[in-house]
Amino acid sequence: MADDKQQKEPKGNKPGKKGPPPMPMRGLAISFLMMAVFLTVLHLFSNNSQKSNEIEYTDFVNMVKNGRVSKVDIAHDGAGNHYVSGESMDINESGTTQFRTEIILTEKLMEMLEDNGVQVKVKRPKTMLVSILANIVPFILIFGIIYFIFIRQMKNAGRGAMSFGKSRAKLLTQDKNKITFKDVAGVDEAKEELAEVVEFLKDPKRFQKLGGKMPKGVLLSGSPGTGKTLLAKAVAGEADVPFFTISGSDFVEMFVGIGASRVRDMFEQGKKNAPCIIFIDEIDAVGRSRFSGIGGGHDEREQTLNALLVEMDGFDTQEGIIIVAATNRPDVLDPALLRPGRFDRQVVVDLPTLEGREQILKIHSRNVRLSDQVDLKRSARGTPGFSGADLANLVNEAALLASRRGADFVEQEDMEEARDKVMWGRERRSHVLDPEEKKLTAYHEAGHAIAMYKTPECEPIHKVTIIPRGRALGATMSLPEKDRYTQSQKRLEADLVALMGGRAAEEMIFEDVTTGAHNDIERSTMIARAMVCEYGMSKLLGPQNLGSHNQPVFLGQGISGAHEHSEETSQKIDQEVQRILAEAYDKCMKILTDNREQLVALSELLIEREVLDFAEVDSIMKTGKLPEGSEKTEPPPIEEAAADSEAEPKSEAETE
């Protein structure tokens, strides 16, 4: 217990107070000794220079009488001693010589100088203080420069040269705007894991009475923007212990050995303030696997990693320091770093669920003036796959949109527009489509909408628009009813049918195809190939993993292929992919053929109104008219709308 108290309350290093340690007495003594030596040398040189110019008083009188002195300066040192200084001409008048002599100032001396035409100048006496400062001030300046350049660097040095070996970990203090677990939502499991760590630090006896030990480390992994760093800030706000934070890139330096030195210094700071928490953000910068990849390893990074491994679980390891690390690349970390005893807990911070997204929207909208009509659950349904950072950006964009139009509150339309802006980009009203392109885009999106509407396995339609956004000329958006973690074969086949709707509508109405379905074809091909090669949804090839052809080359993998198969199997894969895509296209074409009138009516209304929601699409599909309450706009006759026209290929967006 005595050792613990010494660790908790080290002398001269209190938690929460950060500053450089006091200067060593030895260094201070050396500094004053250097200053004394400089002053002594100055005094000696100044005295020598003065003595070298001094002459006898008799010689001075003779030079005045011989006319060799033209002007002199008379001054006294404040102690009653008078001096005369000036220049005397040589006998052959080839030059001058400076002189200085001590005199007794009398009227007779002044008359002699006046009779010989010597110009006399009397200087004001210097006080003792001025004389001392004139000699000392220059050396004080020199000493100050030496102190700030060299001595402070030596004082702050760690084990490396100058301050390179010093750890850059920052000690967070308890400020007013601290973040707690109440400010974090959508990651309940991760909060529970970290809350247990905080409770262990606050009351270790509660867990140790049954023989439990404090975990050494907690690794937070997940996609970017899911809230890993926010969780670490919440731990800092909840814990009553010192919290050090550092980035993984802070260990990387141009000098070899500096990273390992900083790791050792960081853990020394932690031992002095134990129990404490050290947070390392983006630990993959120093924790990558060793001796792997093309071209071997990286010596400096490996030394840093070795030092980190030893400090976390080595012979000289002391309890009381918990490492919390965050990364979005857990697959590249060294296995030795992930074993129990170092990072005992690996917490996956996943994308928020539907309820989590709603909670996150509530947190970020606390300081936003929302209208009573805003339905955050509806906004959460329309943002599948959004991370916490994306949702925070959505709320901010909605507030900016409402401010731009001068509204007092943020309406549901602002939330919808902000979602579309974040996902697809801002509306490009200036991007005016000519009538032919607009007609082509309308039929393309109407084809997607009807294919989704007539396929029960697809998600409900949210709205259809032909307003350009970003690189897209139009979009058909869905509104999922719930989060889905698995996809059935029927649902994947339904998605393929919906993706083929735009291309099938172009071919059926215009008897031509354009590049507008480029992204549709790309996505549908990826889904079909994944069904055959990864999901085992092909009866011909059976349930086997045949590998993916677009795996990244990393850590020596992906060069020869993780899964190799024969050329005959490759041909069967291509045949199955073609079969799945062809069946989806034929099914979509049949749906559009059976609903040609609705396709034409929906397209013409899109051309006129540019945006249709689900209620309007549903009314057109059932009655051929818009629902009551909408503007009465009768669709034109089918014969006129179905007139063939040529359209230039244009790229545009696809459905979800």
Automatic annotation (TrEMBL):
Binding site for Zn(2+): H444, H448, D520
Major enzyme class: hydrolase
Any Pfam family hit: AAA_lid_3
Binding site for ATP: G222, S223, P224, G225, T226, G227, K228, T229
GO molecular function: ATP binding; ATP hydrolysis activity; ATP-dependent peptidase activity; metalloendopeptidase activity; zinc ion binding
E.C. number: 3.4.24.-
Subcellular location: Cell membrane; Membrane
Subunit (UniProt): Homohexamer.
Name recorded for this polypeptide: ATP-dependent zinc metalloprotease FtsH
